[in-house]
């Protein structure tokens, strides 16, 4: 029996695209609410504006993923989308500070166009991983590419905090320049592998009737409501409720990103095993991570100064790696032949729905009941995710996929 081996080079190459994605969104989530607040007082309205990317993910992202299956160029199927739309993303990122200095409409227009461009190359880059990675190795591969995303998170949050203090628009300009560098690397040095572990078949909708898949998707919805809302509102919470400087709070997210970075690769091995270690399994690893997230949120809720509890932010990142690294491989493992793209679409559908619902819900709670419910609300949704995961029985590396 031939032993499967992970292609580390190809996996790190794919991770470079995740580096680009991981660079933009932390800065966008951390600082756009602050920029919007120059023109808009309502936290609920700002929360809705912060869901633009997720509305696009409901429609454009699956469509682009479907089109990339049928794209044929000398650069491959997926990479051309990055070569076209990543530079456009950089252009509109640079226009965001211009809008902040001039008018709400220019700021909003630049943000919408940036989101549109980002949504046009995200799913093709994501689809590269299962394209070239056999099912039993996908947790490990997902750990590597998320390591790259975690590295980008640290660069974004640490460097962004420094740049923000100089001028609030500089983090967006800096991330735009790095996106252009990534595009150049893809253009000059990277070629998409010609083979794929999944054959390209006719497009088919994934009418998911499997109980495990349904509860898995509900769990994904719940934990993304909690985590994305934390990332979106923690700087505003620190400034308006605790009286801290938003850049100081945002800098603490660097410790979260650092812990995620350090444990991204090990969490995949923790779930799927290595050498003689069989692993905990993806489900147990995810539930363990969710329980640790609940504990971290509880401890953060007890703090009056978020600038000095770096270890709690690091604990959040450590726990999030257990959850985030193993969830996407579980979903792809449940997919039948030729349904990787469809199940990937369902994964992003539910995570996007969560990101649409979460920030406005939290903003509405802040407007009506105050910031004291920030972390308790996150705990509630993490607990609901645990209950959903307890109902999941499939998705391990050796489990059989759903019938086609």
Can you walk me through this structure?
With 404 residues, this protein is mainly alpha-helical. The protein has a single domain (9-389), classed as MFS general substrate transporter like domains (Growth Hormone, Chain: A), CATH 1.20.1250.20. It has 13 helices and no strands. α1 packs across α8. The longest helix has 30 residues, at 211-240. It is globular. The two termini are 26 Å apart.
Quick description:
With 404 residues, the protein is an all-alpha fold. The chain has helices at 8-36, 43-49, 52-69, 79-102, 104-132, 138-166, 170-189, 211-240, 246-272, 282-301, 310-334, 340-369, 374-389.
Features:
single chain, 404 residues, mainly alpha, Growth Hormone, Chain: A, 13 helices, 75% helix, globular
How would the blueprint of this fold be written?
Layout: H1 8-36, H2 43-49, H3 52-69, H4 79-102, H5 104-132, H6 138-166, H7 170-189, H8 211-240, H9 246-272, H10 282-301, H11 310-334, H12 340-369, H13 374-389
Helix pairs in contact: 1-5, 1-6, 1-7, 1-8, 2-12, 3-5, 3-12, 4-5, 4-7, 6-7, 6-9, 6-11, 8-9, 8-11, 8-12, 8-13, 9-10, 9-11, 10-11, 10-13, 11-12
